[in-house]
């Protein structure tokens, strides 16, 4: 068994798989222009994860996780969706407070 393998059905493994699932959902959202397309993609992704839900062999589990990570890297969108108010979004720090000191020095 490889030293980096995580035993199945542990909290660490659950978090790792849940993280991959969330990444897959976000990647599907980045590629979908219509809700119907996104919904179908989410159903396919969910079916793929559910098909491997009861894998208990640590080596097979590690191979599945590596395969999923490679697939996510391959499908990573070059311009992912960023919510407007998040850092990097279009509204991030749009209405910052104006400074208290005069902008142009001098006595006008």
From TrEMBL:
Location of this chain's protein in the cell: Mitochondrion inner membrane
Keyword Mitochondrion: yes
KW tRNA-binding (keyword) present: no
Cellular component aspect of the GO annotation: mitochondrial inner membrane
Entry superkingdom: Eukaryota
Annotated region described as Disordered, given as residue ranges: 76-108
GO BP terms, alphabetized: mitochondrial electron transport, NADH to ubiquinone
Occurrences of domain Complex 1 LYR protein (ranges): 15-72
Bilayer topology annotation: Peripheral membrane protein
Keywords of this entry: Acetylation, Electron transport, Membrane, Mitochondrion, Mitochondrion inner membrane, Phosphoprotein, Respiratory chain, Transport
Function description: Accessory subunit of the mitochondrial membrane respiratory chain NADH dehydrogenase (Complex I), that is believed to be not involved in catalysis. Complex I functions in the transfer of electrons from NADH to the respiratory chain. The immediate electron acceptor for the enzyme is believed to be ubiquinone.
Subunit structure: Mammalian complex I is composed of 45 different subunits.
Family: Belongs to the complex I LYR family.
UniProt xrefs under PANTHER family: NADH DEHYDROGENASE [UBIQUINONE] 1 BETA SUBCOMPLEX SUBUNIT 9, NADH-UBIQUINONE OXIDOREDUCTASE B22 SUBUNIT
Name the UniProt record assigns to this protein: NADH dehydrogenase [ubiquinone] 1 beta subcomplex subunit 9
Organism of provenance: Candida oxycetoniae
